[in-house]
Amino acid sequence: MTVTATRLAKPAPSLDPMIRLVADDMNAVNQVIIDRMASEIPLIPQLAGHLIAGGGKRMRPMLTLASAQLLGYRGTSHHVLAAAVEFIHTATLLHDDVVDGSDLRRGRRTANIIWGNPASVLVGDFLFSRSFQLMVDAGSLKVLNILSGASAVIAEGEVNQLTAVRQVGLAEERYLSIIDAKTAALFAAACRIAAVVAERPEAEELALEAYGRNLGIAFQLIDDAIDYVSDAGTMGKDAGDDFREGKMTLPVILAYARANDDERQFWKDAVEGRRTSDEDFAHAVALVRKSRAVDDTMARARHYGGLAIEALRCFADGPAKSAMIEAVEFAVARAY
């Protein structure tokens, strides 16, 4: 590479600008989280703290804080609400790991493996309850409506996904409706509530909601692609988990649609649980690559990422907007 090319090379997108942007606010959020995880039952903060301290990027609460900065909000309600968003997310992770029987989360043993399924479910319930207390503390019925509505939609999305497992003929439209509910809904709500507490016009609420929703869809599409292109160290979970659980993610939907008869029979056997060995997963990866299903999944993610960035057009340029744009670019670039 020439010296000129080296100088012109654009650095890889990062969450660092957003992390720096919200650092002081995040310290306040972390204090709310610590205070509200407290319980006279030692297992509750112990188990919840295991997951919350597990190395996650805290992207959802950061989106609430960054959105508030984008709008010039000067109050403190966004700290309480960002903590509520994190509690909702953590509760859903605890429940998801039980449903999926997961062993790893962000490279660490899952809470259900350490403490068992009943404890994980009940502590998840505790965190949901705490999140609703925080919503009430914020003193806005509209915020309560948005976050409680998102919580219901997430649960519906998880049930929809559960009933779609091992269904080889799953339509792409249903897959998109599942990820819109189970992932994008909380991204959208996390951004929109900042506009509510900042008392901004509904057009700005909807713009932030669109930003969060499209970012969330892009984020999940990349997650689903990563299952077929990365190792456990990169993903923080076992490679091939989605494959072995019979989940019809977009890479599989596209690969199945483009398969010949023999390949379709393999996918049918795999999704229905009859081909789940390491060799079978390696064959699945080869088929996904051959069909360019991962490439097209990533292209869809870039499309939704572009919609997220476009939704910010109505806001003034500045550090918050730049950080939120780079967060989208980071989300989409994770698989490369």
From TrEMBL:
UniProt keyword list: Magnesium, Metal-binding, Transferase
Catalytic reactions of this protein: 5 isopentenyl diphosphate + (2E,6E)-farnesyl diphosphate = all-trans-octaprenyl diphosphate + 5 diphosphate
InterPro entries: Isoprenoid_synthase_dom_sf (IPR008949), Polyprenyl_synt (IPR000092), Polyprenyl_synt_CS (IPR033749)
EC numbers for this chain: 2.5.1.90
Cofactor(s) required for function per UniProt: Mg(2+)
MF terms in GO: all-trans-octaprenyl-diphosphate synthase activity; metal ion binding
The family this protein is said to belong to: Belongs to the FPP/GGPP synthase family.
Protein's recorded name: Octaprenyl diphosphate synthase
Organism: Sphingomonas parapaucimobilis NBRC 15100
UniProt entry tagged with the keyword Cytoplasm: no
Function: Supplies octaprenyl diphosphate, the precursor for the side chain of the isoprenoid quinones ubiquinone and menaquinone.
Key word Magnesium present: yes
GO biological process: isoprenoid biosynthetic process
A Pfam cross-reference name: polyprenyl_synt
